[in-house]
Amino acid sequence: MPIRLASLDMAGTTVDEGGAVYTVLRESVEEATDRMVSDELLSAWVGTSKLLAIRGLLRGLGEDEARAPEIFAGFADRLAAAYEADPPTLLPGVREAVDALRGDGVAIGLQTGYTREVAEALLQTVGWRVGDDVDALVTADEVPVSRPAPYLVFGTMAATGVQDVAEVVVAGDTANDLLAGSRSGARFVVGVLTGAHTVAELGAARHTHLVASVADLPALLAEA
User: Fold this and answer.
1) Superfamily of domain 5-17+89-223
2) Arithmetic mean of pLDDT, 193-198
């Protein structure tokens, strides 16, 4: 049975934004609470929706989660400014890999912990259009629960008309990406080493493969 859908994360997986999202996330929570966010606490929340992450960080700090929407609004403004100052780009080899996969009949569904507004702005910055360069975009504000729940993966399946998880490969740079992929039942769950988590952190999450980059996906699928 061939793979018909590659369900791919954005920041750190297909898009290089220099880790700005987590720098801004940490700074936003630290400034709002006057508390330090440890690397361990932050790591637990990478790869999920940013509002959910803020709630999780506040809970981990023993702070009131009701402040999350207010902090999120400030976070969104600061992230937009950070991306304007240092525009994100596609990671090396990603454009070619995506073109190769689509040429082989594999649909590309992007799924992300960002909101639709932020994700569409990112796509515009890197020069991708849904329908022309990728086949679908599903964002955290469009599903009942973000990662590590599997709904973002299912959203890309629905958007591309793929009905069987045996025809899906999921790839991401965080443990939450891999957990979501595993919980979806996707045939291949691939960790990439271009983003937030190390090989040890990715290796601790259930997966089928670890590769250097999304650029390696065409060769991996050809071998598989």
Assistant:
1) HAD superfamily/HAD-like (3.40.50.1000)
2) 87
